[in-house]
Amino acid sequence: MNQNPIDGQLTIIDAEGNEKLCQILFTLESEEFGKKYVVFYEISELSDSDDDGEIPLMAASFVENEDGQGELSEIETDEEWAFIEAAVNDFDAQCAGNCDDCEEECENRQ
Questions:
Q1: Which of 8, 30, 45, 60 could be stapled to 72 by a disulfide with Cβ–Cβ 3.0 to 4.6 Å?
Q2: Which of 10-14, 68-72, 84-88 has the lowest mean pLDDT?
Q3: Is the overall model pTM greater than 0.85, yes or no?
Q4: Coil, helix or strand for 55?
């Protein structure tokens, strides 16, 4: 599983037609499913996060256009969701207090 942390943002449109600014956590690609995925969270959720500091994550598959933009699609199968969940768990484990092997800037880095 090759995760690519990205310091970027994307805008999604919710079911009511509202634009939501989101922070990209990382992207990854699956040879098994032949797709690329992006894991992200809504920036406004930072202030609304649970008491334990957890932020609700979202994920989507995407196809990158020639101009570098992309089109998001819903994740279609339980197997894809399991793949995404494993990637998120791996990402969390990489920076869970041990920053020696982590290249990300986070609140744990000293």
A1: 60
A2: 68-72
A3: no
A4: coil
Backbone angles phi, psi at 90, to 5 degrees: -65, -45
Q: In this predicted structure, what is the pLDDT of residue 10? A: 87
**Do 39 and 8 contact (CB within 8 A), yes or no?**
no
The encoded tokens of residue 97 equal: 């207090």
Sheet strands (E) in 1-110? 3-5, 9-13, 19-30, 35-42, 58-64, 70-73
Other residues' Cβ atoms within 10 Å of the Cβ of residue 23: 16
Closest to 94 measured CA to CA, from 25, 30, 14: 25
Residue 28 vs residues 12, 15, 38, 70, 100: alpha-carbon distances, Å:
19, 25, 7, 14, 22
